[in-house]
Amino acid sequence: MKSLKPLMISGREVLPLVEGGKGIAVSTGRSSGAWAAAGGVGTFSGVNADSYDENGNPIPVVYRGKTRRERQEELIAYGIQGGIAQARIAHEMSNGEGRIHMNVLWEMGGAQPILRGVLEGAKGLIHGVTCGAGMPYKVAEIAAEHGVYYYPIVSSARAFKALWKRSYHKHAELLGGVVYEDPWLAGGHNGLSNSENPQEPQDPYPRVRDLRAAMNEVGLTETPIFMAGGVWFLREWEEWLDNPELGPVAFQFGTRPLLTQESPISDDWKQRLLTLKAGDVLLHKFSPTGFYSSAVRNDFLNELCQRLEHEIPYASEPEGELTGELAIGARGRRVWVRPEDVARAQSWMAEGFTDVMRSPDSTLVFVTPERGEQIRRDQIECMGCLSACMFSNWAENEAGTTGKKADPRSFCIQKTLQNISHGGNVENELMFAGHNAYRFGEDPFYAGGFIPTVRQLVERIAMGD
Question: Which domain holds residue 303?
Fold first, then answer.
């Protein structure tokens, strides 16, 4: 394999190997600090990060506010406190090597005050901010306020052009790089557009080539592109190294750092990763953000798939093809559905799916009473973790609502990610992973259940494997 040359990232020459930021309490100061100490770019998550008591134990996140807005204020305070804590840990563990970045989701609740609060409280400890899950126009302005570099996450040249035109051209000197995240292979939330088929993956090379062309047009010829999503063995990407058509390229790894000694995920989660097979990661659209996302198919996702299997269109009065009469609920309230759906719905209710919930798309979803109760309770307890939530209908506007019905086909993402990142059952919670996660079980590096340190992993990757 070609030798791996260092790149200038966030003001320092480092290995072009980047740890991808991963949600709630998964990319921590410990893991990112170790990655930076190995000479690369470590990234901790600024999404509701953990903070700790005097004994080093995570401080439980408890919401006492009576309203969603009050609870969101608590969430923002927790987020700032946790982000500062992780930045300090990362800084200490890095031993002055590499670079430390903070990752935030633009569509998370309180993104701007959390980002500002952490950058102010951890001044000098964070060298760059990566940001995706939406169109983060203002991240450049916020980064500039604090003198740090920013790294937008995009999945197309078109998205970059829109961001550049609206905002980034004003702060070009701090645009440290652009992260191209493959929308078909990356874990977590994916940037598929409405014009792209989730079932038809596209080769990333021409898409990144187009991104580089767009960057060259505005003078960003030496600004690196981070290739994220689907990267496993670096030798498989050798043609990207020293490629004048692509310019300077770094490689971002999100899934592989999950299986390290410094990774904070549970042993059960780590062992589950070692057993995955090709196809075990599902690209789906259940997320309350409205984005596609990729996660391990388990009981949690299977139950969400079941809700879609138990869904039919309905109307309050006969109209069009909705002419079949159906009685639902304890009072036997009448609705009209397609004639062929009457028998289907009755069979579901006979099987115990008797709680009938209405979706914003004029459909009925049949769930068990226990599941229906859980859905309603989670919706009521919403703490505003997103800027707009399909599941609870919360939104960061004056009205505090999206103006649509709460959607029972989704879930409380804050609850399940907090659960799994703090030891929850890996079958019953959302487990984000990239689509190459099955390669843990095929890669000889992990033979016999071997779990490397971050340094061992970085050294292995740098050699091509």
Answer: 299-421
Matching residue, tokens 């470590």:
42
Tokens of 128: 């760059």
Which residues does residue 366 pair with via DSSP β-bridges, in sequence order? 356
Distances (CA, A) of 140 to 27, 129, 412, 428: 23, 9, 30, 38
247 and 106 both lie in a single domain: yes
Do 48 and 14 share a structural domain?
Answer: yes
In a domain? residue 165: yes
- Distance, in Å, from the CA atom of 63 to the CA atom of 229, rounded to the nearest integer, reads 34
φ and ψ at residue 337, rounded to 5 degrees: -130, 175
Q: What is the dihedral of CA 326, 332, 335, 340, to 10 degrees?
A: -10
CATH of the domain at 116: 3.20.20.70
Pairing mode of beta strands 99-105, 128-132: parallel
CA contacts within 13 A on the Cβ side of 86? 33
**Residue 51: count of CB within 10 angstroms of its CB:** 16
pLDDT of residue 303: 96
Domain count, the chain: 2
DSSP letters, 145-208, are HHT-EEEEEESSHHHHHHHHHHTGGGGGGGB--EEEE-TTT-SEEE---TTS-TTS---HHHHH
Contact 322, 315 (CB under 8 A): yes
Q: What is the pLDDT of residue 173?
A: 95
Phi, psi of 95 (to 5 degrees): 55, 30
Alpha-carbon gap, residue 438 to 322, rounded angstroms:
44
pTM (predicted TM-score): 0.94
- CB proximity list for 125: less than 8 A, separation 6 or greater: 87, 88, 90, 91, 100
* Predicted local confidence at residue 358, as pLDDT: 96
Q: Identify the segments of the chain with pLDDT beneath 70.
A: none
